[in-house]
Design goal:
Elements lengths: L10 E4 L6 E9 L3 H9 L9 E7 L2 E11 L10 E8 L1 H13 L3 E2 L4 H8 L5 H12 L3 H11 L2 H25 L10 H30 L1 E7 L5 H9 L17 E7 L2 E7 L9 H16 L2 E7 L17 E5 L11 E2 L8 H15 L10 H22 L4 H19 L5 H8 L7
Parallel strand pairs: 1-6, 7-9, 7-10, 10-11, 11-12
Antiparallel strand pairs: 1-2, 2-5, 3-4, 4-5, 8-9
The chain binds guanosine-5'-diphosphate and magnesium ion.
Length: 439
């Protein structure tokens, strides 16, 4: 905002990736942005009017560009801001940035533009985090979740809880202020009800985290089974290329081969593993140990059984009760009745497998809008929940308002930290250091 802007540094960074393309954008933020544009381009355009400029520095033409000037507070950051749309060459971007720095700007730190937007109240912290997630999203569902949170879905849920707490807090404080007169602004039963409601709301929010995290990070699936069950063949079929080596020799796959495909709207990284057996071969044994470890961390396990062999005592499916059991090579022998069977050779059962996986991902992992998506957010809500439980205990024990208020304020502060309505420096630097330059 206008207040204090004159003491701000003016910062500059490329806003588009450094590569060759039709266009490249350089962003300049801060009080010197418009004077720098005037010096370089000889123009002082009206705010938000795209204007052609020939950028000159030390007697040389740097590039021809389209400049847009934004006037505080109507910009992404809330400060005076200039965007230069140059021709898309890294060399031009570098030279323009060097000239801008010579004219008094400094290079932006990672995430500094977004940080300024938060400091100026243009975005809250959750929204700022959502920008980073949105940029990194690989599937439409991930983008939808991040865009929803950028538009305030999660922040609104948190703020609704915070407002209900502030409602109780203000009444309990009023009761304190007027205790002499014996007024009651909120009955203990009412306060209890409100706090219980807030606990239920925070619980619901905490429960969104599992799906939120799965949606943002993507899932892992592991293909397990005895040697020669057809694991590598299935991986290759799922990714659509000969990624893993397939041979009739048991023990071909040793190291884990990973590929990511989209299932149910989420990126799923599928790991093909060494067949489970004890072979005495040291390299293969390490591969088998890695397979078990990968299965322990996986969201989805596909346990393959050769239909011509069937389940044997050597099979380890019992150790993975959530695994989906799939009978392979059904062109040679049928799967037991009621079991899922596939034949990659005959292209049979693959669609059924894929639609089972698709439904599994959508039912178990896809996050609704407004979900918590990272550990910082989860900790903030858990902090709120813990304080609310203590407040409820204090209410039940019949403690004085002051005691209850301490916990309710703590609960409200925890939610404030979530959105950045209340700021702590370490929260800020932690979040913005993960951004790239220019955001
Ligand atoms: N007939 C038939 N053979 C298959 C099928 N899937 C895999 N195989 C064969 O089974 C052998 C072992 O396959 P592979 O994918 O390497 O098994 P892995 O050891 O579990 O990775 C290879 O000779 C494959 O060609 C199938 O659907 N039908
Ligand atoms: Mg294999």
């Amino acid at each position: 905002m206008a207040t204090g802007q004159s003491e701000l540094d003016t910062i500059v960074a490329p806003a588009t990736p450094l590569g060759r393309g039709a266009l490249a954008i350089v962003r300049i933020d801060g009080p010197r942005s418009a004077p720098i544009l005037e010096t370089l381009g000889g123009i002082a355009p009206d705010a938000r009017i795209a204007t052609f400029a020939r950028l000159m520095h030390n007697g040389f033409v740097l590039d021809e560009c389209i400049a847009v000037r934004y006037a505080s507070p109507h910009s992404f950051t809330g400060n005076d801001l200039v965007e230069l749309t140059l021709h898309g060459s890294p060399l031009l971007v570098e030279r323009v940035i060097a000239a801008v720095v010579e004219l008094g700007a400094r290079l932006a730190e990672p995430g500094e533009f977004t940080e300024r937007a938060v400091l100026n109240g243009k975005l809250d912290l959750v929204q700022a985090e959502s920008i980073a997630d949105l940029i990194h999203s690989r599937t439409a569902l991930q983008a939808k979740l991040s865009l929803g949170n950028l538009q305030g879905e999660l922040s609104r849920r948190a703020m609704a809880i915070r407002e209900s707490l502030l409602h109780v807090i203000s009444r309990l404080e009023a009761a304190l202020d007027f205790s002499e007169e014996g007024y009651e602004f909120i009955t203990p039963a009412d306060a209890r009800l409100q706090v219980e409601g807030a606990i239920a709301d925070t619980d619901a929010l905490v429960q969104t985290y599992r799906r939120g995290k799965a949606t943002i990070s993507g899932l892992t699936a592991v293909i397990l089974g005895r040697p020669n069950a057809g694991k590598s063949t299935l991986l290759n079929r799922l990714v659509g290329s000969d990624r893993a080596i397939v041979t009739p020799i048991p023990g071909t796959t040793r190291d884990i081969v990973r590929e990511t495909i989209e299932i149910g709207g989420l990126p799923v990284t599928i790991a093909d593993t060494a067949g489970l057996r004890s072979s005495g071969d040291i390299v293969e044994e390490i591969g088998v140990a890695r397979a078990r470890e990968a299965a322990g961390n996986a969201d989805i396990i596909l346990y393959l059984v050769d239909a011509t062999v069937g389940l044997t005592d050597d099979d380890e499916h019992a150790a993975f009760p959530d695994a989906i059991i799939i009978y392979t090579k059904t062109d040679l022998a049928p799967a037991p009745s009621g079991e899922l069977g596939i034949s990659v050779a005959a292209e049979r059962g693959i669609d059924e497998l894929l639609s089972r996986l698709d439904a599994l991902v959508r039912d178990e992992f896809a996050a609704p809008e407004g979900s918590l998506v990272n550990e910082r957010q989860r900790q903030a809500v858990l902090g709120c929940r813990e304080a609310l439980t203590t407040a409820l205990g204090a209410l039940d024990a019949g403690f004085e308002e002051q005691i209850v208020l301490v916990d309710l304020h703590r609960a409200s502060t925890a939610l404030g930290l979530l959105t950045g309505a209340i700021t702590r420096d370490e929260v800020f630097s932690e979040i913005f250091s993960k951004f790239c330059i220019g955001k």
